[in-house]
Each structure stands twice: as C-alpha cells, then as structure tokens.
Amino acid sequence: MGDLAVRSHYDELSAAYDRDRNHRFFAQGIERYLAALAPRPGRVLEVGCGTGGYLAELRRRGVEAFGVDYSPRMCESARAKLAALGLDGEALVRCADVEESTGFDEPFDSIVLMDCWEFLPHPERAMATVHAALVPGGRLALFTPNQTFRLPLTALELLRIKKLRPAFMFRNSSVRRVLALSAGRFRLLERGTMFLGLESWFVFERIDG
Asked: Structure pTM?
C-alpha cells in the first residue's frame, strides 16, 4: 500500500499545484515525455498524473491518454481539467494505488511513471503492476529525481524555487535500484537526465520472462 502521508500531502497541495507550476520546465517536460513514448505511443497510462497537466496536453495532441493518481483531490482536479476540454474525466482518470492496481482493466501500449517512483514503499510491486498492464513489447517511461542531486533539490525546495514535497525515498531513484527492480520484466532502451540534471528518465520495453 502507498504512503498515506504522501497522499495527504498531495491532497493539501492540489489547489495550488497548477498555480505554482514552473511553465518553462513544464514545456521542456512535455517534449521529453513525448519523445519517451515515440514512435507510436498508442494507449498511454500516466501513473502519478497529478492535476492532469501532462494528461490534458497529450489529449490536445491527439494521444489516447489516461491517468491514475493516489491522491483523491489530485484526481478530482485532473477530471475537471479534462472535462473543461469536453472529455469524460471520470472515465479517463482513476484514483488507485499502483502498488496494487492501475485502476483500469484494459492493457496499455505505453505507461509513464511520472515523479511518483520515489514515494513508493514497495516499488517492486509497482513494477509488477505496470508489467501486467502493458501489452507485449509495450513501453515504460520512468521519471524520477536524480539521486546525485539530492542536496541541490532540497535547497531548491527550502528556497521555494521548487515545489515542496515529502522527503524523497532517494534509494528508489538510484540508477542501480531502478535497473535492478526492472530486471526480468523490462529491457532498458535508453536513459538520461533533464532540467540541468535534476531529473532522471528511463525508457524500457516490456519483456516476458
């Protein structure tokens, strides 16, 4: 089961989340996001969709995207954002714990773990969940803070330059741990960093062991 303190934190943060967003970083993020899903994203599930910013942008660009989040209030905001675009937010966004379920029955061609990996108490369960939810050969993109930059990230949060979050479980975010937990279920296609190295990203392909 996910961390209840994290869910409570994001419930409280949901109202101000979009207002405080760094739009320049968001623009960079969506381009990296789309590149990770290339060349054919198909049906996409975003795990940790938050208030639906990336989800709405994907839908605007014609991507068949769905979202799931652990925070009920974040899910409400994401549904409202999609409804404002004339979409059925209730059908497109589910509130669920990815360590147990995606909240959807249908398989997906691509799944994105967007800045939620670092909060998972049992990330191995999340890996099993997303593996089962992907079609054979499906793509997994994982975005998480770069463990190497733990001190600068903490400083940016204290200075309110970066949004405050609960303490990262940085052990989850180390390259070694990500690769170890993906072994046997996924093959690494590429990895890199963004936002001046503060964020790490990984792109995997589902394999059947």
From this structure: 0.83
